[in-house]
From TrEMBL:
This is Transposase Tc5 C-terminal domain-containing protein. Residues 144-205 form the Transposase Tc5 C-terminal domain. PANTHER family: DOMAIN OF UNKNOWN FUNCTION WSN DOMAIN-CONTAINING PROTEIN-RELATED, PROTEIN-TYROSINE-PHOSPHATASE. It comes from Caenorhabditis briggsae.
């Protein structure tokens, strides 16, 4: 995807921070589901909160693709819970999945260096793809309800972590000849994978 390519390029140039990457990727999810919110600022503008890094306009200008014109608007401090649905309902779940994967890596695959730039990018890309699953559409929509928007409330749904790491996920890895224990269930092929075959091999069914 174009967005991913652009983010990759900026990371390789050492220009973009971890949290910024997350925000770029999540923006892709919102676009994909065409979540239609009245008065929501689209791609022409980038509405930032008052986090200090967003005040560094030179840094933001340096990572803006030349094909895009960016109009920067800043949300006053203290408004997150009211007007930032992704902060309310998306990023936390995203980070929870990433944290579960990195915690698991520390326990079981000490040679895996998830803090290196390339592995971090691959891990975020892997999680982002899983979170784009149609199985999570209700979860994504719920963020707007949670932030208090007057939008239809989705029926009950499961979170990314509940679907990726369900009860009983520990079993035999799907890959032929692999004797490792599975720890994650792919939301697309619904098969169980061990750490090596899901994260290190960058599962992309
Ligand atoms: Zn799969
Ligand atoms: Zn395996």
């Amino acid at each position: 995807m174009e967005l991913e390519k652009e983010v990759r390029m900026h990371i390789e140039n050492g220009k973009i921070l971890h949290d910024s990457v997350l925000r770029f990727l999540i923006a892709g999810i919102i676009k994909k589901y065409k979540i239609d919110i009245e008065n929501f600022i689209g791609s022409e503008s980038w509405l930032n909160d008052s986090w200090n890094s967003w005040k560094d306009t030179a840094a933001i200008d340096s990572v803006t693709p030349s094909s895009h014109k960016l109009k920067l608007l800043t949300i006053p401090a203290g408004c997150t819970g009211r007007i930032q649905p992704c902060d309310v309902g998306i990023f936390g779940s995203f980070k929870k999945v990433v944290k579960t994967l990195t915690n698991y890596a520390q326990l079981t695959n000490s040679n895996y260096k998830f803090q290196t730039r390339d592995e971090t990018l691959k891990l975020l890309s892997l999680v982002w793809r899983q979170l784009c699953s149609p199985k999570l559409e209700k979860w994504a929509r719920y963020a707007w309800v949670a932030a208090g928007y007057d939008v239809p409330r989705p029926a009950s749904f499961e979170t990314p972590a509940q679907l990726l790491f369900p009860r009983g996920v520990a079993g035999d890895c799907t890959m032929h000849g692999c004797s490792s224990t599975s720890f994650v269930k792919c939301l697309y092929c619904e098969k169980l994978f061990c750490f090596e075959h899901f994260v290190i091999d960058h599962h992309n069914c």
